[in-house]
Amino acid sequence: MDNKLLAKVPSKELDRLLPHLHEVELPQTKVLSEIDEKIEHAYFVTSGVVSMVNQPDNGEIVEFATIGNEGMVGFPILLGTSSMPSRVLVQVAGSGLQIRVSDLLDCLSDMPALSRLLMRYVMAVLNQIAQSTSCNRLHQVQERCARWLLHTHDRVHGNSFNLTHEFLSQMLGVHRPTVTVAARMLQQAGLIHYTRGKIEVIDRAGLEQASCSCYRLIVDQYERLLEND
Question: For 160-215, what is the HEC assignment?
Protein backbone atom coordinates (compact mmCIF):
# COMPACT_ATOMS: atom_id res chain seq x y z
CA MET A 1 0.00 0.00 0.00
CA ASP A 2 1.71 3.18 -1.22
CA ASN A 3 -0.19 5.43 1.18
CA LYS A 4 1.51 5.31 4.58
CA LEU A 5 -1.72 5.76 6.53
CA LEU A 6 -3.47 2.86 4.83
CA ALA A 7 -0.33 0.74 5.14
CA LYS A 8 -0.74 0.90 8.93
CA VAL A 9 -4.39 -0.17 8.92
CA PRO A 10 -5.12 -3.76 10.11
CA SER A 11 -6.06 -6.06 7.23
CA LYS A 12 -9.59 -6.62 8.59
CA GLU A 13 -10.33 -2.89 8.51
CA LEU A 14 -8.54 -2.38 5.18
CA ASP A 15 -10.70 -5.09 3.57
CA ARG A 16 -13.75 -3.14 4.70
CA LEU A 17 -12.41 0.05 3.11
CA LEU A 18 -10.92 -1.22 -0.17
CA PRO A 19 -14.19 -1.60 -2.15
CA HIS A 20 -14.81 2.14 -1.69
CA LEU A 21 -11.36 3.28 -2.86
CA HIS A 22 -10.84 4.22 -6.50
CA GLU A 23 -7.44 4.95 -8.02
CA VAL A 24 -7.25 8.37 -9.70
CA GLU A 25 -4.60 10.49 -11.36
CA LEU A 26 -3.72 13.82 -9.74
CA PRO A 27 -2.41 16.14 -12.49
CA GLN A 28 -0.55 19.31 -11.51
CA THR A 29 -2.80 22.27 -10.54
CA LYS A 30 -5.91 20.05 -10.24
CA VAL A 31 -8.21 21.45 -7.53
CA LEU A 32 -9.35 18.72 -5.13
CA SER A 33 -11.36 20.95 -2.83
CA GLU A 34 -12.61 24.50 -3.45
CA ILE A 35 -13.05 27.36 -0.99
CA ASP A 36 -16.21 26.96 1.15
CA GLU A 37 -17.59 24.22 -1.12
CA LYS A 38 -18.82 20.95 0.30
CA ILE A 39 -16.10 18.32 0.46
CA GLU A 40 -17.45 15.41 -1.59
CA HIS A 41 -14.37 13.16 -1.71
CA ALA A 42 -11.34 12.36 0.41
CA TYR A 43 -8.05 11.28 -1.15
CA PHE A 44 -5.34 9.03 0.24
CA VAL A 45 -2.35 10.32 -1.71
CA THR A 46 -0.10 7.58 -3.13
CA SER A 47 2.35 9.78 -5.07
CA GLY A 48 2.87 13.45 -5.81
CA VAL A 49 2.34 16.46 -3.56
CA VAL A 50 -0.81 18.38 -2.65
CA SER A 51 -0.99 21.87 -1.15
CA MET A 52 -3.56 23.48 1.10
CA VAL A 53 -3.63 27.19 0.30
CA ASN A 54 -5.33 30.39 1.32
CA GLN A 55 -6.13 33.20 -1.08
CA PRO A 56 -6.23 36.62 0.65
CA ASP A 57 -8.21 39.55 -0.70
CA ASN A 58 -5.39 40.61 -3.04
CA GLY A 59 -5.68 37.32 -4.93
CA GLU A 60 -2.24 35.98 -4.04
CA ILE A 61 -1.99 32.32 -3.01
CA VAL A 62 -0.19 31.28 0.18
CA GLU A 63 0.39 27.65 1.19
CA PHE A 64 -0.12 26.62 4.81
CA ALA A 65 0.13 22.81 4.63
CA THR A 66 1.62 20.15 2.35
CA ILE A 67 0.29 16.61 1.92
CA GLY A 68 1.96 13.61 0.31
CA ASN A 69 1.72 9.85 0.58
CA GLU A 70 1.96 10.14 4.36
CA GLY A 71 -1.56 11.50 4.56
CA MET A 72 -4.99 12.28 3.20
CA VAL A 73 -6.84 15.17 1.62
CA GLY A 74 -10.20 16.11 3.12
CA PHE A 75 -9.39 15.66 6.81
CA PRO A 76 -11.74 18.53 7.92
CA ILE A 77 -14.58 16.01 7.59
CA LEU A 78 -13.04 14.15 10.53
CA LEU A 79 -13.66 17.24 12.66
CA GLY A 80 -17.35 17.38 11.85
CA THR A 81 -17.29 20.03 9.13
CA SER A 82 -18.19 19.60 5.46
CA SER A 83 -16.17 22.52 4.03
CA MET A 84 -13.27 24.85 4.73
CA PRO A 85 -12.31 28.40 3.68
CA SER A 86 -9.25 27.17 1.76
CA ARG A 87 -8.38 25.53 -1.55
CA VAL A 88 -6.62 22.20 -1.97
CA LEU A 89 -4.66 21.71 -5.19
CA VAL A 90 -2.00 19.44 -6.65
CA GLN A 91 1.45 21.04 -6.75
CA VAL A 92 3.40 18.01 -8.05
CA ALA A 93 1.51 15.53 -10.23
CA GLY A 94 0.87 12.06 -8.84
CA SER A 95 -1.95 9.70 -7.97
CA GLY A 96 -4.25 8.82 -5.11
CA LEU A 97 -7.09 6.67 -3.85
CA GLN A 98 -10.39 8.54 -3.91
CA ILE A 99 -13.33 7.75 -1.62
CA ARG A 100 -16.69 9.41 -1.18
CA VAL A 101 -16.93 11.23 2.13
CA SER A 102 -20.18 9.47 3.01
CA ASP A 103 -18.56 6.05 2.44
CA LEU A 104 -15.51 6.94 4.52
CA LEU A 105 -17.59 8.17 7.45
CA ASP A 106 -19.74 5.05 7.31
CA CYS A 107 -16.65 2.84 7.36
CA LEU A 108 -15.03 4.73 10.23
CA SER A 109 -17.98 3.93 12.49
CA ASP A 110 -16.63 0.39 12.89
CA MET A 111 -12.93 0.95 12.14
CA PRO A 112 -11.37 2.02 15.48
CA ALA A 113 -7.74 1.59 14.37
CA LEU A 114 -8.13 3.79 11.28
CA SER A 115 -10.20 6.34 13.21
CA ARG A 116 -7.47 6.70 15.82
CA LEU A 117 -4.75 6.89 13.17
CA LEU A 118 -6.58 9.58 11.21
CA MET A 119 -7.05 11.74 14.30
CA ARG A 120 -3.34 11.48 15.04
CA TYR A 121 -2.73 12.51 11.44
CA VAL A 122 -4.92 15.60 11.95
CA MET A 123 -2.75 16.48 14.94
CA ALA A 124 0.39 16.08 12.81
CA VAL A 125 -1.04 18.44 10.17
CA LEU A 126 -1.92 21.01 12.83
CA ASN A 127 1.66 20.79 14.10
CA GLN A 128 2.91 21.34 10.54
CA ILE A 129 0.70 24.41 10.11
CA ALA A 130 1.85 25.89 13.42
CA GLN A 131 5.54 25.30 12.65
CA SER A 132 5.21 26.63 9.09
CA THR A 133 3.53 29.79 10.37
CA SER A 134 6.44 30.43 12.72
CA CYS A 135 8.91 29.61 9.95
CA ASN A 136 7.35 32.13 7.55
CA ARG A 137 7.70 34.82 10.19
CA LEU A 138 11.19 34.08 11.49
CA HIS A 139 13.34 32.57 8.76
CA GLN A 140 14.92 33.81 5.55
CA VAL A 141 13.43 32.93 2.17
CA GLN A 142 16.42 30.79 1.18
CA GLU A 143 16.03 28.66 4.33
CA ARG A 144 12.29 28.35 3.77
CA CYS A 145 12.86 27.45 0.13
CA ALA A 146 15.27 24.68 1.15
CA ARG A 147 12.76 23.39 3.71
CA TRP A 148 9.95 23.34 1.18
CA LEU A 149 12.08 21.53 -1.41
CA LEU A 150 13.04 18.93 1.20
CA HIS A 151 9.40 18.26 2.10
CA THR A 152 8.60 17.89 -1.61
CA HIS A 153 11.62 15.64 -2.21
CA ASP A 154 10.42 13.41 0.64
CA ARG A 155 7.12 12.88 -1.14
CA VAL A 156 8.17 12.22 -4.75
CA HIS A 157 9.77 9.23 -6.42
CA GLY A 158 13.31 10.15 -7.47
CA ASN A 159 15.32 13.34 -7.20
CA SER A 160 13.54 15.56 -9.73
CA PHE A 161 10.08 17.07 -10.02
CA ASN A 162 8.32 19.69 -12.15
CA LEU A 163 7.94 23.06 -10.49
CA THR A 164 7.89 26.63 -11.82
CA HIS A 165 9.28 29.66 -9.99
CA GLU A 166 5.79 31.16 -10.07
CA PHE A 167 4.30 28.15 -8.30
CA LEU A 168 7.13 28.02 -5.77
CA SER A 169 6.69 31.73 -5.02
CA GLN A 170 3.01 31.11 -4.33
CA MET A 171 3.82 28.22 -2.01
CA LEU A 172 6.29 30.37 -0.05
CA GLY A 173 4.11 33.48 -0.07
CA VAL A 174 6.75 35.73 -1.67
CA HIS A 175 7.14 37.54 -4.98
CA ARG A 176 8.62 35.60 -7.89
CA PRO A 177 11.90 37.61 -8.13
CA THR A 178 12.56 36.82 -4.45
CA VAL A 179 12.20 33.08 -4.88
CA THR A 180 14.23 33.22 -8.10
CA VAL A 181 17.17 34.68 -6.14
CA ALA A 182 16.78 32.05 -3.39
CA ALA A 183 16.68 29.18 -5.89
CA ARG A 184 19.68 30.58 -7.74
CA MET A 185 21.70 30.67 -4.51
CA LEU A 186 20.83 27.04 -3.77
CA GLN A 187 21.83 26.12 -7.31
CA GLN A 188 25.12 28.02 -7.13
CA ALA A 189 25.89 26.14 -3.91
CA GLY A 190 25.51 22.88 -5.84
CA LEU A 191 22.47 21.74 -3.87
CA ILE A 192 19.88 21.74 -6.67
CA HIS A 193 19.70 22.08 -10.43
CA TYR A 194 16.88 24.11 -11.91
CA THR A 195 15.93 24.42 -15.58
CA ARG A 196 12.69 25.11 -17.46
CA GLY A 197 10.30 24.38 -14.63
CA LYS A 198 12.10 21.28 -13.37
CA ILE A 199 14.04 20.99 -10.12
CA GLU A 200 16.55 18.25 -9.36
CA VAL A 201 17.98 17.70 -5.88
CA ILE A 202 21.74 17.23 -6.25
CA ASP A 203 22.97 17.33 -2.66
CA ARG A 204 20.32 16.20 -0.20
CA ALA A 205 22.56 16.51 2.88
CA GLY A 206 23.65 19.99 1.86
CA LEU A 207 20.04 21.04 1.31
CA GLU A 208 19.20 19.93 4.84
CA GLN A 209 22.05 22.05 6.16
CA ALA A 210 20.77 25.03 4.16
CA SER A 211 17.27 24.61 5.58
CA CYS A 212 16.07 26.05 8.84
CA SER A 213 15.42 23.77 11.82
CA CYS A 214 11.69 23.70 11.00
CA TYR A 215 12.17 20.90 8.47
CA ARG A 216 13.47 18.44 11.07
CA LEU A 217 10.93 19.57 13.68
CA ILE A 218 8.01 18.90 11.31
CA VAL A 219 9.40 15.51 10.24
CA ASP A 220 10.02 14.48 13.85
CA GLN A 221 6.45 15.36 14.82
CA TYR A 222 5.06 13.19 12.02
CA GLU A 223 7.25 10.30 13.08
CA ARG A 224 6.24 10.71 16.71
CA LEU A 225 2.54 10.73 15.94
CA LEU A 226 2.37 8.26 13.03
CA GLU A 227 5.49 6.21 12.38
CA ASN A 228 5.96 5.22 16.02
CA ASP A 229 2.28 4.63 16.70
Answer: EEECCHHHHHHHHCCCHHHHHHHHHHHHHCCCEEEECCEEEECCHHHHHHHCCCHH
- First and final CA of the chain: distance in angstroms? 17
140-211 belongs to which CATH class? mainly alpha
Tell me the pLDDT tens digit for each residue of 89-105.
Answer: 998 999 999 999 999 99
Decide if 218 contacts 127 (C-beta within 8 A).
yes
Region 4-135+222-227: CATH code: 2.60.120.10
Single pTM value for the model: 0.89
Q: What are phi and psi of 21, to 5 degrees?
A: -95, 135
Residue 93: other Cβ atoms inside 10 A: 17
Q: What are the residue ranges spanned by the domains of the chain?
A: 4-135+222-227, 140-211
177 CB-near residues (< 8 Å, 6+ apart): none
Q: State the average pLDDT for the chain.
A: 90
